[in-house]
Amino acid sequence: MDGRYFDYNATTPIDPAVAAAMMEHLSEYGNPSSTHRAGKTAKQSVRQARSHAADLLNCGQSELIFTSGGSESNNWAIKGWLSQWKGRRPHIITSSIEHPSVQEAIRYAMREWEASVTWLPVDGDGFLSAEAVAEALRPETKLISIMLANNELGTLQPIRDIARIARASGVFMHTDAVQAVGKINVDVQELGVDALSFSAHKFYGPKGIGGLYLKEGRALEPLVHGGGQESGLRSGTENVLALVGLGEACRLAREEMEETALRLDEFKRLLAAGLTALSPQIKQNGGRDASRTLAGTMNIQIPHIRGEALAAYLDHRFGIALSVGSACSSNREKKLSGVLKAIGLQDAEIQSSVRISMGKYTKRSDIVGFLEAMEQAMEHFCRLMPV
Amino acid sequence: MYNDIIAEHFMNPRNIGELEHPDERISIGNPICGDTIHLGVAFKDGRIADMKYKAYGCATSIATVSVFSEFAIGKSVSEIRKTSSEDMEAMLGELEPNQMHCLDILSELFQSLGTVKEV
Question: Which of B22, B8, B19 has the alpha carbon at shortest distance from B63?
Fold first, then answer.
């Protein structure tokens, strides 16, 4: 695997075992809804995928609905739940650092269903407090949607505590766990949420497939009406091949994630020490508490160097892939990371920020190579820097 | 994402540095995106003999000033003044929408240098 890839939070390489499983099923063309042998074989593949996914999340197989991925799951959980209060001004509690697929689905509910929203702030480290959720509750609160792990900072939110508050108040609790599933142990029984979104390509599965956990007894407005697949909630012939990949990715995640997280935690510390040695001016954005952050995610700012330019240099010179906190837009506006704004960073700090995200194929030697490349990059930009 | 001209100039910017005794200093910046360029120009026999700059900004803006410096050295101010906007566009190659602001930077560089008094 490519040791220059440091953008695992954007997507991950497909695990060779996942690819092999998919290749093995490539010639299976049956429709899982058909009653003949070809159909039964496909149905068995879907069933097996559901079994692996349910094992990973510790839920019942009937509590899983497969979707096209995280954005669809997030949209559906929010709209599918809130649609029963159309025009009745439901109140939503969410955070200021949610993924756009949550934020935009909520804005849709505001526009179309007159929903009101409490966008809870996070602290300077990117953490939300469960107490703030409790304080934001209103009699008309119908939904709490808070992400489990943040894609940019890797911060983990106290979902178990928030779900307890939601349960005590009878409020539906959804969490976007796209960045958490497959990286840390995500047990829906332990979390106590009503709905949870996940996506296979974030943990070495194929793109375009994911799912929504929906607690037994909870009902959403069906997303796709039709032939009744996925318990009648999301009709349409199943993406069998992608599901085979998702299932295998879930199976592997159970086996590997703990060991991977331990290794990445060590690499993160190695990276932090190496970056500080390169320049004490390099600062880490967001919380550093290892028990409350994803092991593979680190967000840093390098003063006086534009993150976009740094990422471009590392990409062109070394083939290193990173993600940036801001992008050029035009002379009149700039696109700055809403998450980094939410933790109180100034525009210049956001423009100087990059996200490094590692995964199970990252090796110690990759960290060393990355630090060497960073040293050269910083020399390059120092030559350019206005005094 | 970056065309060949931008990538080449960004990775290997020409004429970086500071002139010890520039005849002209030009500073341009965009308050919104924060791009900043400090340029020193030296003239000899009515032509731009040397040009050095320091720059902070996105990859495309750094490439832009590099492209500009390479073009300008050896030219007279009147030649700079006569450069058409079509020629300027061609210098940077095809840009993506989010890189178009660098055309404004290039145009501003031409304009600033075009208004200096020839030495």
Answer: B8
Rg (CA), chain B: 13
CATH number of this structure's domain B4-114: 3.90.1010.10
Q: Quick: pLDDT tens for A61-117.
A: 999 999 999 999 999 999 999 999 998 999 999 999 999 999 999 999 999 999 999
Which amino acid does the sequence have at B46? G
B109 and chain A in contact, CB less than 8 A: no
Ranges assigned E (strand) in A172-296? 172-176, 195-199, 210-214, 283-285
Are A268 and A46 within 8 A, CB to CB? Answer: no
Q: Any chain B CB within 8 A of the CB of A347?
A: yes
Domains and CATH numbers, chain A: 16-252 (3.40.640.10), 256-384 (3.90.1150.10)
A329 contacts B57? CB cut-off 8 A: no
In this structure, the strands spanning A172-176 and A141-145 are parallel
* Nearest-neighbour CA in chain A from B57: distance (Å): 6
**Which tens digits make up the pLDDT trace of A6-47?**
999 999 999 999 999 999 999 999 999 999 999 999 999 999
Give catalytic residue positions of A: 328
- CB–CB contact A387 B30 (8 Å): no
Query: Looking at this protein, which amino acid is placed at residue A138?
Result: R
CB pairs < 8 Å spanning A and B: 66
Q: b/e string for A123-133 if b means 16 or more Cβ within 10 A?
A: eebbbbbbebb
**Which tens digit of pLDDT belongs to each residue from A364-375?**
999 999 999 999
What is the mean predicted confidence (pLDDT) over B6-30?
95
Q: What global pTM score does this model have? A: 0.94
Tokens found for residue A145: 């949607």
